[in-house]
Amino acid sequence: MKTRLKSLFPLVILLLSVLLSIPPAAAERPDAPPYGKRGPFAVGTRDLTITDGDYPLDVTIWYPALKEPGVVEEVTYRWLTLEGTGRAILNGEPDRSQAPYPLIVFSHGLSGLRYQLVAYTEHLASWGFVVMAADHPGSTFRDMLLSGPEGIVNSFANRPFEIVRQIDFAQYLNQDLLKGMIDTDTTGVTGHSFGGYTTLAVGGARLDLGTLAKTCEQTQNDRACLFANAAGDIAAKRGIDLPYDGIFPPTTDPRIKAIAPLAPLSQEIFGEPAGADIRLPMMLMVGSQDQSTPPEQNAYPIYESVSSTPKAMVVFENAGHYIFVDKCPPLLIQMGRFELCSDRVWDMDRAHDLINHFATAFFMYTLKGDQTALEALDPAEVKFTGVAYQASLKP
Questions:
Q1: DSSP assignments along 5-34, one per residue
Q2: Which of 41, 108, 124, 277, CA to CA, is 20 to 30 A from 95?
Q3: Claim: this prediction has a pTM higher than 0.90
């Protein structure tokens, strides 16, 4: 498979350095908006492995937990030789007082891992959700060093089905380890960058070969060319013949009820006709100066093309691609890579409080029917400096 990766792999190498250590636990600012504040539940966490299927998936789960006397919400997350702290209780006793809780599945970006947005996943769990994230084989930074473009193509093909495998696994856990805790029929999906593509794909968007080929030909875009040239391989991995109109079948699941893509890789893959197949409630968030997934080619057109109601888009003015990731660990700053876990304009604590606020309110409304959360999403109530917001909230 011949691909042009002159710009893709320098970016990958830069992304690898982001994950040399996991940052310490974050706390919201005193001026955090209502849903940006920590929720009413203590958070438990567990690491597990899904062993069904052709290959295993390593997953982490965050869930409402009982906070027993003397127990501190502090956990060390480990991945190979990496480690960092979070605000959760390792193997905490589940809090079933308001169970079952909706499920939210998080999908990491290219060259990432399941701990990429710990402050985000823990925060959602604190508001009464069970949150699950897996390492996507082929697109973690370790896998990319070992398998390169072939691993990316495999991950591109498999990611939507890995989301469905996690929902199936949560259904199993609901009968076993987390008995009675999880409402898998009410599932949300969220993800960053390549995880944003994954989120849109399980939300109903369909791969458009015509758009991919056109983008490759006109722009020489490395990602579009990589996937366009590998279309046959992707189709084979999905067990389908290439459709005559160039649009793949959807890869969604009826248990998924809402999606929240963050800085998604989208329009160059799906195109307008295929994007219109998204009909689930959607909240899209992006930075206006994102150079990795430029919103003019990704977030903005996909927002216009989807058929979703309700739908909302949050644009952090002058923000870049990494506004969503956890804050810089000291080691990364010492290495001179501060720009990959910070933003040139935004204070990261403030940005994360707002990201958590919007996503939490969105999922509280769409997955729990919380009317107070709906009020927080009303454009008349969104008055944050530096945030451009639009929404169509009525079905």
A1: -TTHHHHHHHHHHHTSSPPPP----TT--G
A2: 108
A3: yes
Residue 2 domain-assigned? no
3 lies in some domain:
no
Tens-level pLDDT at each residue, the chain (395 residues): 334 444 444 444 344 444 444 555 667 899 999 999 999 999 999 999 999 989 999 999 999 999 988 888 999 998 877 778 899 999 999 999 999 999 999 999 998 899 989 999 999 999 999 999 999 999 987 887 787 888 999 999 999 999 999 999 999 999 999 999 999 999 999 999 999 999 999 999 999 888 888 888 888 878 889 888 888 888 888 888 877 668 899 999 999 999 999 999 987 788 888 889 999 999 999 999 999 999 998 999 999 999 998 999 999 999 999 999 988 766 667 766 676 677 899 999 999 999 999 999 999 999 999 999 999 999 999 999 999 999 999 76
In a domain, 228, yes or no: yes
How many structural domains are present in the chain?
1
Residue 234 lies in a domain: yes
Quick one: 141 exposed, middle or buried, by C-beta within 10 A (0-12, 13-18, 19+)? buried
Q: What is the DSSP letter of 94?
A: B
* Phi, psi of 289, deg, nearest 5: -110, 30
